[in-house]
Amino acid sequence: MRVIGGTARGKRLVAFSGSAIRPTPDRVRGAVFSMLFSRLGGFAGKKVLDLCSGTGAMAIEALSRGAAHAWLIDEGAQSASIIPNNLAACGFSERSTFLRTPALSALDRLRKTAPFDLIFLDPPYGKGLGMLLLERLAADEFLSQDGMICVETAKSDELPENVGGLSRTLLRNYGKTSIHLYLQSETEVLEQ
Questions:
Q1: What is the pLDDT, as a whole number, of residue 21?
Q2: CB-based contact 86:13 (threshold 8 Å)
């Protein structure tokens, strides 16, 4: 697994051992960042929140492309050792904050830091956590007016088109994985 673009392009990232955790494959990450770039117009100066970070690859990709700061959240023991090492290897320790805590608990701590311009959400598949987190993000206004939430789910895990004040503007499938992009409802809905 490597950083695809930006200042850390080509840097190898430490991944998980075993098959219990599934990092976003490079080709899916590349497609996601292409979609995000076309909709956000770049990442420079953006505040990023990466919930259920895993290896930290999504936040690291955003930092590599110019994001101002990223908050990475994961409760896993492997993530707690991998994420800080990946951030340091890419030179992003100063522009990032890692919290080892459950995603829902982290939102209480991050309330004062909101709003975020880009939120990644990649919860464990098949547990309903994605919907709970989306509802909380919408209810507590964690997303900036022009921001975007990128949710990765199993293709079999369905999410609604509207969650609170959020509207899904895009749904793409990549094998067994689905990518959902959400914006504030009053923001103009983009073509799929």
A1: 57
A2: yes
